[in-house]
Design brief:
Blueprint lengths: L2 H25 L10 E2 L9 E2 L5 E4 L2 E6 L9 E5 L7 E9 L5 E10 L9 E9 L12 E4 L5 E3 L4 E5 L2 E5 L6 H7 L6 E8 L2 E6 L2 E7 L10 E6 L5 E12 L15
Parallel strand pairs: 11-15
Antiparallel strand pairs: 1-17, 2-5, 3-4, 4-17, 5-16, 6-13, 6-17, 7-8, 7-16, 8-9, 9-10, 11-12, 13-14, 14-15
Length: 262
């Protein structure tokens, strides 16, 4: 190779690399919140939501779910948003919880009312895991197949596709242990953004992309309810505030119509 060619390649690399790095950095930031987001929680009561009244209430202006030794959850139980369903959407909220157990945010999920349900508020589908832990992989943000057979579908840090019954991970990690440790706020409020567009789902934590997942039929879930979880087992509490939803699909009677701005 000629010296001139080597110099040209090096110069082009110097010019291109900062642009590529900047583009990648921009893609890893949470998108601006869309206009017209609907607030799903009014800050006063649980209007529009349904859950076990023993375990869910409003405390100091936030949704507070709690199990105790006396008030236990018979199986995982959920506070279900009853005013609509969502297909393609942008969902934003803040959460905090203790480390005794885990919680979650359900989306594109089904409310189970048949005899297999252990209580009246069972939900199955995609779950954004919530935990008060900072050591990968047992952290907030991975996708769990609540009530299904796939377990942890996509871990924090992964770009992945589920196809032909298996997961394929591509590219470098979106976030590593050091970055997650600096990103997550232990024992404090953390901000979640979930963006679902067709088969692609992205989770953002405190403004940063932490996973990018694409599902395919027959496992792809296209539409469903939104819900908040209290996990069975050890007593725990979880709190939620500033819950906002923007749907991208056109409203349909009995479906996403309830999720539009009022």
């Amino acid at each position: 190779m000629r010296l001139g060619s080597v110099i040209a390649i090096c110069v082009c690399g110097l010019i291109w690399a900062p642009w590529a790095s900047g583009q990648d950095a921009a893609e890893r930031q949470a998108p601006p919140e869309p206009a017209g987001a609907k607030r799903l929680f009014n800050g006063r009561d649980l209007e529009g939501w349904d859950g076990d009244p023993r375990l869910w209430r409003v405390k100091d202006g936030v949704i507070h779910g709690e199990t105790t030794a006396e008030q236990v959850a018979t199986g995982n139980t959920f506070l279900i948003w009853k005013e609509g369903r969502a297909r393609d959407f942008d969902l934003r909220l803040s959460f905090r919880c203790n480390a005794a157990n885990n919680s979650g945010i359900q989306y594109r999920s089904r409310h189970i009312t048949d005899t297999s349900a252990k209580n009246q508020w069972v939900v199955r589908g995609y779950q954004h895991e919530l935990r008060n832990e900072a050591t990968l992989p047992n952290v907030a943000g991975f996708i769990y197949d609540e009530g299904g057979k796939r377990g942890r579908i996509c871990l924090v840090g992964e770009r992945a596709t589920w196809s032909d019954g298996a997961k394929q991970v591509t590219g470098p990690a979106l976030v590593d242990q050091e970055a997650f440790g600096a990103l997550f706020r232990l024992d404090d409020w953390n901000d979640v953004v979930i963006v679902a567009a067709g088969p692609r789902i992205r989770h953002y934590l405190n403004g940063r992309l932490i996973l990018d997942f694409t599902d395919t039929p027959p496992t792809l879930l296209e539409e469903g309810v939104i819900a908040l979880q209290l996990h069975a087992g050890k007593p725990m509490w979880a709190e939620f505030r500033d819950i906002r939803l923007t749907v991208a699909d056109a409203p349909r009677a009995g479906a996403a119509a309830g999720a539009t701005e009022r």
